[in-house]
Write a structure and sequence with these properties.
This protein is an alpha/beta fold and 305 residues long. 40% of the residues lie in helices and 16% in strands. It is elongated. About 7% of the residues have low confidence.
Length: 305
């Protein structure tokens, strides 16, 4: 068994501490360390993360090729094993067996902080059920890096993190429509092959809102962009983006509210002509690229209830 990974400032391994002391060292083993790794620039990693990766018995990672590049740079020889969404349940069971036997394990993602739109929750839950220590080793995050340079104001610095949007178009529309009353700043991850399609869909629902994008954060071709959604659509027609993109949507709630009032008013006129609410909701949902269920519910709230 390897020596303990954790050390705290002002602590001495030779001085016993009370069990409930805030400065007590973690138990030597077993422990599951959730380690943040660079999102682009390999020098963006903490000393504690490097020490942890060196001293654990096993590193679980999404893609062994990607993690190997980081480990090779810092001459870390720890064994690595794949842990991704396709083998998560089987891998988690094997990892728990190792932890129970006294081994220390580190969980990393391809980039950034694990479990933020990455696999790992099954393993974390199983470890906690077994009373195995789960220890975060904080560090890089594309989410926080993008927010740190986003100029959009929001009350109490509020934001809503969505992660990746649903692949299913209908579910994606429902998700986007549900954002109107939740937060001004919505953070979304979008893959480069989806960016044109998804931004066009967002524009159909939030045409008066601003948008901020951050891509290739900490890399050579890092780029930040802020503007209106139609301008981004024009930009995407003339430029190809690579790498995952962090999109922050700043919803103009006043404008969106006025637009919805306009839609509901037209729905009311349509219904007075003899059409049912259900039929009208479907018709207007298709015309305005909105959720039929949401239009149905909004109409009930405004005119019926």
């Amino acid at each position: 068994m390897k020596e303990p990974v954790d050390g705290r400032m002002g602590e001495s391994a030779n001085v016993p501490l009370e069990r409930n002391s805030p400065h007590r060292r973690f138990a030597p083993s077993p422990a599951l360390y959730v380690v943040a790794t660079p999102i682009g620039n390999l020098t963006d990693i903490t000393l504690r993360a490097l020490e942890t990766l060196k001293k654990v018995d096993l590193i679980l990672c999404e893609d062994k090729r990607i993690t190997s590049r980081l480990l090779n740079k810092y001459a870390i020889k720890t064994k690595i094993k794949s842990h991704h969404k396709y083998n998560e349940h089987k891998s988690a069971g094997e990892a728990i067996s190792l932890l129970v036997s006294g081994k220390d394990i580190a969980l990393v993602s391809d980039a950034g902080t694990p479990l933020i739109s990455d696999p790992g929750k099954t393993l974390i839950a199983a470890a906690m059920d077994q009373n195995i220590k789960v220890i975060p080793v904080p560090g890089p995050s594309a989410l926080l890096a993008a927010l740190s340079v986003c100029p959009f104001e929001s009350e109490n610095s509020e934001f809503l993190f969505i992660g990746f949007l649903p692949e299913n178009k209908s579910k994606r529309k429902d998700t986007l429509c549900s954002l109107k009353n939740r937060s001004k700043n919505i953070v979304i991850y979008i893959a480069p092959h989806d960016i044109k399609k998804y931004i066009a869909e967002i524009n159909n629902i939030y045409p008066d809102s601003e948008i901020f994008i951050a891509r290739e954060i900490s890399k050579i071709y890092e780029e930040l962009w802020k503007g209106k959604i139609p301008d981004l659509i024009w930009l995407l027609e003339n430029k190809t983006f690579k790498g995952e993109i962090v999109v922050i949507l700043h919803i103009n709630k006043q404008a969106e509210s006025l637009n919805m009032e306009h839609v509901l008013s037209h729905m009311k006129n349509h219904i007075t002509e003899g059409h049912s609410l259900k039929e009208t909701s479907k018709t207007f949902a298709k015309e305005y690229n909105l959720s039929a269920k949401r239009l149905y519910d909004l109409y009930l709230d405004k005119y019926i209830k």
